[in-house]
DNA sequence: ACCTGAACACCGTTCAAGT
DNA sequence: ACCTGAACACCGTTCAAGT
């Protein structure tokens, strides 16, 4: 009969899947779980902390690939991060806030740092690659998911933008930069 | 006695400067302007539109530099964008939402596309550079400004992060990528 | 051109108490 | 370990009307 912390996160995902971030209120979440709003505060001290836990949950499956060259592994981590975000509507915005609040991990960032270092990049360049990749992915996916929701609600027509290729082009530049720095350091 | 649209935006900036985005409510804005909350709806159809206008206002001064090599001009546009954001507390988050909503221009993005093309990059690479630069700048500045506010409110101690160098490292990778693509196309 | 009065339908969060 | 009752102090927005 009683709800666990995981139940709360699952109900939050369901609200995002069927509605939107605007509908993800503590009151609505409580109603869907069959409890009063204040019951949620037994699980989380506040909404911000709940959203940070959700952000970690959403990106939990993003792991480094074991095969391919260093640039290919950086690229595949970025693609995996983007896929994880696209899987849950409005999740990019949630991740952005969570990373900013300091209440979530930034484990995907660390994953990419590790991949880049293992590929032979020096520490500073590896940090730069991971930062650029994560911000590109989160930021562009916020734009895409927001458009998707606006179209779903009929408040706007199609944007005419091709987010997949915008992402691919941005990623190409970052990977080219990583490759250039690798070339420099192995010279 | 009566307020213009520009007065509303100026009052919004003042709230950000003295308080935070959380305090930037339509009700507080109205109080500061000496009117009732609903008076603001004469100037803007809703809060989202007001924030989009504010976002454009904040980035209005970011213009391409006329001197230096192509990589230097890309770098200086990125630095100018970051400076404009850092000048207004919590503005990066506002710009992120505004770009996503489609209610603001994305003129800074276009500025960087132009700078990159004029530097000899092909259209696709120029788009990739501009996208990567803008998302890096907005995303990292969201994190920095959020930390600044949390420290200001005493809810957190110092993060120990050096956002200036995180930004510099990310930007270095993107500029190296731009340079690499230039080299390829002029070969 | 710009503002008010009055209202609607919401929010997140707290506190003491219950099982 | 998990939830309720009751309340506090807010939000954005609408509509008709006023000057």
Task: Give your account of this protein's structure.
The structure is a homodimer of 187-residue chains. The first copy, chain A, is mainly α and 187 residues long. Chain A is 69% helix and 0% strand. Chain A contains eight helices and no strands. In chain A, helix 4 packs antiparallel against helix 6. The longest helix of chain A is centred in the C-terminal third of the chain and has 30 residues. The model of chain A has no long low-confidence stretch (mean pLDDT 95). The interface between A and B is large, with 41 and 41 residues. The first copy, chain A, binds a DNA duplex (19 and 19 nucleotides) through loops.
- Intertermini distance of chain A: 64 Å
Shape of chain A: globular
User: Based on helices, strands and strand pairing, what is the structural class of chain A?
Assistant: mainly alpha
Helix share bin of chain A: 55-70%
Largest interface: A-B, 41 and 41 residues
Gyration radius of chain A, in Å: 19 Å
| Strand coverage percent of chain A | under 5%
The arrangement of helices and strands of chain A along the chain is HHHHHHHH
Largest sheet of chain A: none
Overall pLDDT of chain A: 95
- What is the oligomeric state here? homodimer
Low-confidence regions of chain A = none
- Count of helical stretches of chain A: 8
